[in-house]
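Methods — Computational structure assignment.
A single polypeptide chain was analysed. Its primary sequence is given first, followed by the predicted tertiary structure written as structure tokens.
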Amino acid sequence: MIAPRHGWQDMDVNHTHTIKPVTARYFRFVYDVTGTEPGAEDLDFAKWKQNNLKVSKITLSNQSLIDNFEGKSGAVWRLSPTTTAEQIPNAESVKKSSIVNISKFVDADGNLSWKAPKGKWKIIRMGHTSTGHENATGGAGKGLEVDKFNPELIRFQLDHWFGEAIRTAGPELASRVLEILHLDSWECGSQNWSSVFQAEFQKRRGYDIVDYLPVMAGIPIESVTTSEKVLYDVRKTIAELVADNFYGTVADIAKKANVKFSSENVAPTMMSDGLLHFKYVDYPSGEFWLKSPTHDKPFDMLDAISGGHIYGKDIIQAEAFTALRMDWDEHPGNLKTLADRNYALGINRFFYHVFVHNPWTDRKPGMTLDDIGTFFQRDQTWWKPGKSWFDYCQRVQLQLQKGKPVVDLAVFIGEDLPSRSLVPDRLFPFVPNVFGAERVASEKTRLENEGQPATKMPKEVTYSKNNTDLSQWINPMNGYQYDSFNADVLLNRAKVENGKVTFGGGIEYGALLFPGSRRMAPNKIISLAVAEKILQLVKDGATVFIDEKPMDTPSFQSDLDAKKWQLVVDELWTKGKEATNNEQGSTSWKLGKGTVIVLPFLDTDFAKIGIEADVLFSDAKNNDRGSIAWTHRKNGNEEIYFLSNQIEEKRQIGVSFRITGKIPVWYNPGTIR
């Protein structure tokens, strides 16, 4: 049994593991930590002490239930491979024709009055109610959450606090002081039903979910293949409703109030496409933590950055310097390196965590947020001299808000749901040599996780030493930057211009990468629409990287579409007559005006496909790959590079830019020179 990918709010429902049927008198479960994976934001429990298993109960059952149906039905943020016919043979599935909907025989008090046909029947009563999950960090506002799928209820709830604030202040004052409607951490678990869900599902998927409702409880109908496709449609509908009905509604409310809409991530608590909701958000936001590896959010950061880039948002924010335990030794001198690294990732506005409103002038240090957050406030000992650092941050952010980012590559997150951006260690297996020989060796050691090494930070908290940690991936691709993208922008915004792909947000990508199966995309699936779009882009002149050939579609399709799907997939994944293999072993061929390249790509850079490294560094020690954080923006004729030395020593660095025909001007945001 292998744990599904899961987030930090993974406590609302049980885990169902489906195993190949076996009969025995006694069963023994063995927990072996050898070779177990180190922790990450999508394997949250493994971030902590890994050889400390906590199990409250194990129940064995002879009932066939779909593997991880709790996650697949959207009741919790989890992802695992589809159930196989070996685990649940088709004979164990319930025939759809044998299911009778007896809802009409239930009266208003819930009493069933039904004359059942002769035979043995299993009666399933299904309804919906609140999960009971409260927004635990809501302070005085702690309580249950509004139905995120129902626009009417969303407007009602927003009107009774946001609307009330505007009415109380009055239109004149509100117009001067109210600028942003912000949604912070999503800490209320997942949702998979609503009074509007059945109608929305019918409209979006084309059939009635009630006909297959038992699959929401893990009961297979027709076959595991059919059941998995229904459950995929459930998750896809949830992802769309979170974006369209919740974020779309809040965005409309913000627009009518003449304020900007700002929001952090949905994942990894609410079942979602981790990028999709940012299409409705003016200021996409992530969060990063200080000296708190168990709580740091690398996926959050890259979701916000990529979501902002692909949907054309110019301001990308971060909740900055949140900390699990303050040591009161925090000051600008030990915050700057972390700040710079996140500027280089793509953040261009900080909101500091935490600045608590302090009504007292005679109490020191005043108000904190308990022990969570770094203390930014007027009573901080370094507050007045620290102004020079805040000035530095303002000047950096000013430069990084100009123009548009320059990013060479875009990586597809896949159609599995839930989904998230690819952090560097998830992209690494597909282009390993671009990351360098040293990384190839270190990743082998890290992922072997021998002995499950642990350490502590802060001093009270034990964590897995081999966690995914962005501080260990500075300039990981040696002069190349990448974004992640989803099916929505691929289908609705992607086009080829001058051999490059654009999503309409001002960035031109030299190549698109479509990685194969991996931890957050375990199923070899592709929809007809996505396959057709990839083929069209290639024929129009795009360069695309593809991995293993897909085996299935995520959802249902007609016989005609199934034939189209096979033809498109065969054309895209069949080597051209003039396929070439270079000395590194990379295979490619022409298709229409474009080029198809097979993953894993084994070259050390992308120069041979016409993408030179944007910037290269060298120093006397030649320790350049992982010590300089950087980003690049283009503002008309102005090329803006942000560079940051990430190690605590003074060095002379040689810098080689891809830009030619310009004279570099050094801008020091610390002194405005």
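Note: The two ends are 60 Å apart (CA to CA).
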